[in-house]
Amino acid sequence: MARIRSLRPNVGRDEAIDQFSSTGPIEMLRQVAFGPVRSVAEFFIPFQLFQVEILNSGKRDQRVLGLDAVTGSLDLYAFEQLPGPREVVFVETRNCPLPLLEEEKARELILGKVRRVLFTTGFFRMRNLQISAEPIAGEIYIPYWVGFRGRGAQARFVVMDAVRRRIEGAKVRNLLQTWLTSMQ
């Protein structure tokens, strides 16, 4: 079992079960279409943190951003500041993929993602744009809750970010599915 450094979750197991089993209209449709919730499990994704500096039109902006350290395909995870001891817990778990991205590849990916985010706010607002990203030592894992549902041999799952309390989309589900199928 791996001992990892994780952000402290804001959603506990019981809250996740309630969320996955709620009686709202969307959950009722999921239950009818995919079956009842059968199991709930924790899952942790490693993120490499970067200190990102953006120079645009003479203005300097510094941010702490996280890039998933498995494939680099997930959306960036923004932090108001570097997580301190109160926001971090240490967990022993098997439910986490290994960080696979090399530092240089991760830096290229984060620079590209930051550039795309900036350009979506207005390409013509960019003047003398310079972006730099310096890695911060050590990964931090983001906790997720996975709700498995189904009938018989059929299984589906839904993933919730346990820090931000939101249901995740296809990118996180694909990462989880790839990791689960690689373990066979």
Structure description:
It is a single chain. With 184 residues, the protein is an alpha+beta fold. The protein has one domain (2-182). Helices cover 27% and strands 40% of the residues. It is built from four helices and eight strands, in the order E-H-H-E-E-E-E-H-E-E-E-H. The chain has helices at 13-20, 25-34, 103-120, 170-182, and strands spanning 2-7, 37-56, 59-68, 77-79, 88-93, 130-149, 156-161, 166-167. The longest helix is centred in the middle third of the chain and has 18 residues, at 103-120.
Quick one: how many beta strands?
8
Percent helix: 25-40%
- Whole-angstrom Rg: 18 Å
Mean pLDDT: 90
Strand order of the largest sheet: 4-3-2-6-7-8
SSE run: EHHEEEEHEEEH
How widely separated are the two ends?
A: 17 Å
Structural class of the secondary structure composition?
A: alpha+beta
Globally, the shape reads globular
What kind of sheet is the major sheet? 6 strands, antiparallel
Number of helices: 4
Number of domains: 1
Give the key terms.
six-stranded antiparallel sheet; 40% strand
Topology readout:
Elements: E1 2-7, H1 13-20, H2 25-34, E2 37-56, E3 59-68, E4 77-79, E5 88-93, H3 103-120, E6 130-149, E7 156-161, E8 166-167, H4 170-182
Antiparallel strand pairs: 1-5, 2-3, 2-6, 3-4, 6-7, 7-8
Write a compact overview of the structure shown:
The chain has one domain (2-182). Helix content is 27%, strand content 40%. The chain has helices at 13-20, 25-34, 103-120, 170-182, and strands at residues 2-7, 37-56, 59-68, 77-79, 88-93, 130-149, 156-161, 166-167.
